[in-house]
Design brief:
Layout lengths: L4 H11 L4 H11 L5 H37 L3 H15 L16 E7 L9 E2 H10 L4 E8 L2 E4 L5 E2 L4 E7 H6 L1 H4 L30
Antiparallel strand pairs: 1-6, 2-5, 3-4, 3-6
Helix pairs in contact: 1-2, 1-3, 2-3
Length: 211
Amino acid sequence: MGYNAGEAAELLAGSQTISAVIGVADDTIKGLNLTDTEKTNMINIIPVAYAVTYIFGTAGSAWVLATLDPKMLGGLDKVKAACKELEGEMGSSEADEPDFVHALRPVVFRSYEIQNDWFNGGKKVSELEQYFLQDGKRIFVERIRTNGKIQEVTPDTVLNKGDEIVLSGRREFVIEEETWVGPEVTDDQLLDFPVESIPVMVTKKHTPAAA
């Protein structure tokens, strides 16, 4: 199209808003089999071409995406509807936006007062969690209020009737245990503790049996 190396490289850099091309083009031109004058002219045109095309690469691209592209895809209303449908399929919603939260949370924390006779004589935290696990439920004891004092738990912490405990796990599992453990209680202090969200990658679906 009649552009020299400097113009062509920076038309690419500006239109695609890739400033790294500037350094690559500069080094490449210096290695060409040309006179020093020709190299200097090409290198000097780089910032000019970049400045002109960068405007289109930013504002122009935004304008095209917001106006022309929706019309090419059938109209803005159709594009909005398709986006909403795709967000639903991907599990995205307005709750993913800042200042919003999901009303449906898969993992919950709820407090209960122990009233079941199963706890007579005391049961360890590990025994209760194993009891839940035998029923196919992963429910964990997070904290306990015993004798009016709140404390963190260990697998060996003993639970007795009258204690208040915080259970955590999938919503459907924890809710089912209200009638078994005891009544749910509102204990703001017991439930006032920080929790951390940590990403986990599972590389194997099943754990192989030990040899």
